[in-house]
Structures are given as C-alpha cells and as structure tokens.
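Person: I have long wanted to understand how a fold can be written as tokens. Underneath my words sits a plain record pairing an amino acid chain with its backbone structure tokens. Those tokens are not coordinates but codes from a learned vocabulary of shapes. I should like you to check that the lines agree and flag anything odd. The protein I mean follows directly.
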Amino acid sequence: MNEIRKLKVESLLRSRLASMILYQEIKDPRVTTFLTVNSVSVSNDLSYAKVYIGSFQKDSTLGVAVEALNHAVGFIHGFLGKNLPLRNVPRLSFLVDNSVQAAMDLNRIIDEANSH
C-alpha cells in the first residue's frame, strides 16, 4: 500500500475522531471533551485502525472512556462512513495512551527541580 495514502487516512481519521469528541457527537456521558486522540495507526491494507486515546484529567476516567468508545464503535464507524471521502472505513479499536499524563508528570518534576 502507498505509504502516503496510509498517512493521509491516519490524519483524516485522527482529525475527524478528535472533532467528534470535541463537539460531543458521541452522546455517551463517559466520553468527555478532556479526551484527546493522540495517534491513529492504520494497517497496510487500510482495513484496521488502532486509535490511541489520552486524557488531560488526573483521575482514572480514561479507561472508562476508552471502554465507552469501544462500545460505541458501530455508531462511530457508521458516522465516519457517511462523513469521510473513503470507500471503506477501517475497523476501529480504541486503546489507552498515557503519554499525555506522563508528559504532564514529567513537566511537573522539571518545574519542581527548577524551583529549588
């Protein structure tokens, strides 16, 4: 598969999923606007996509939110099929990505070290 096409599909999915979360098009209360789509990884044949979700919140709601997104994957897939210029939308699976929280913790540690 063409690598450029794969990158374009990943970018398109990432931006559309992020806007779905931001504009609360997914009506589940567990999916909040504090979620971020950190990255999307599409398979070489464009049939599967792993979506890595992060959160700006400190508490452990990220796992619950990812579970809610996986529960709503049928709705999300149908919505993307209607709103994206793709013949076939990849099958989505949502995964927890703690890199945002790790970066925030690292920044806090650096700030504490600089303040002493």
Observations:
- The chain has a mean pLDDT of 91.
- The beta strands are 35-42, 48-55, 91-96.
- The radius of gyration is 16 Å.
